[in-house]
């Protein structure tokens, strides 16, 4: 029999109900046993199926349930604590924004950061820790286990928060840049009536007469104080040259309306930008 001791009745009651539900669900598949709670924040688990080895059946089930319980009940609290006590972000709104980014990293939703995903498999960290310490007949103390046996998981959360903060700061810098550019083009006198931008895998600029602009022409218009793509060659710059030229209207031809640069152009120029499918550009040139 396994006895699991809790310091909080809430944790005990929640896990007790989950285990009862699982035992009932899998009983029809031959998972024998019972789960009891004596009202003293202790769960007693008795596995009775002798036809299937404990470590092949109930052990992985119990380990998985405990893993999900930690993630669902403790992870957000720990992340917020790291954000505040280790990185000194005390503003609630900033904390929530960083927390949202950290959770998206942990869930594998940040496809723009694919190289970091293998390092944040927190299910594996927690599962392995529980699996090593759960025996068929044992007394298990839940809260001390979280404190002393999930050290690697805690270190992983710290690394995750650090990356989340970096991403948060970059996003803040981006938003500030967008706002500065928006203000600039709003109050600056336009230097040309219409500018065409074509994205077919790379960005190209065309003047009012639909003539492709040369590197020298773009460089001529570029205002050094407006450049934020430091260290980037002029051919790869898009936003800074556009803002420098202050067109009254921009027509963008692309089939990728969700491209980050196109969304940035839209955010800066707003109603002054119109988006057309790439085939419209092809008709213009034929």
């Amino acid at each position: 029999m396994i006895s699991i001791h809790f310091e909080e009745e809430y944790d005990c009651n929640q896990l007790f109900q989950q285990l009862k539900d699982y035992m009932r669900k899998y009983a029809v598949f031959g998972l024998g046993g019972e789960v009891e709670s004596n009202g003293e924040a202790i769960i007693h688990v008795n596995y009775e199926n002798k036809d299937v080895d404990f470590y092949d059946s109930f052990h992985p089930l119990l380990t998985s349930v405990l893993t999900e319980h930690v993630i669902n009940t403790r992870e957000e609290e720990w992340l917020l604590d790291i954000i505040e006590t280790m990185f000194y972000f005390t503003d609630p709104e900033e904390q929530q924004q960083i927390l949202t980014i950290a959770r998206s990293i942990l869930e594998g939703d940040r496809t723009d950061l694919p190289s970091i995903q293998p390092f944040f498999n927190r299910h594996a960290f927690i599962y392995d820790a529980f699996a090593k310490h759960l025996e068929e007949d044992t007394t298990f103390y839940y809260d001390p286990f979280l404190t002393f046996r999930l050290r690697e998981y805690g270190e992983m959360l710290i690394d995750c928060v650090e990356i989340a903060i970096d991403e948060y700061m970059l996003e803040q810098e981006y938003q500030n840049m967008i706002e500065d550019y928006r203000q600039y083009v709003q109050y600056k006198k336009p230097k040309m009536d219409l500018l065409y931008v074509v994205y077919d895998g790379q960005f190209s600029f065309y003047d009012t007469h639909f003539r492709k602009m040369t590197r020298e022409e773009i460089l001529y218009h570029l205002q050094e104080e407006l450049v934020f793509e430091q260290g980037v060659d002029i051919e790869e710059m898009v936003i800074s040259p556009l803002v420098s030229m202050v067109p009254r209207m921009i027509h963008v031809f692309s089939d990728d309306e969700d491209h980050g640069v196109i969304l940035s152009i839209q955010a800066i120029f707003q109603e002054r930008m119109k988006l057309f499918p790439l085939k419209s550009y092809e008709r213009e040139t034929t």
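The first strand starts at residue 2 and ends at 5. The two ends are 80 Å apart (CA to CA).
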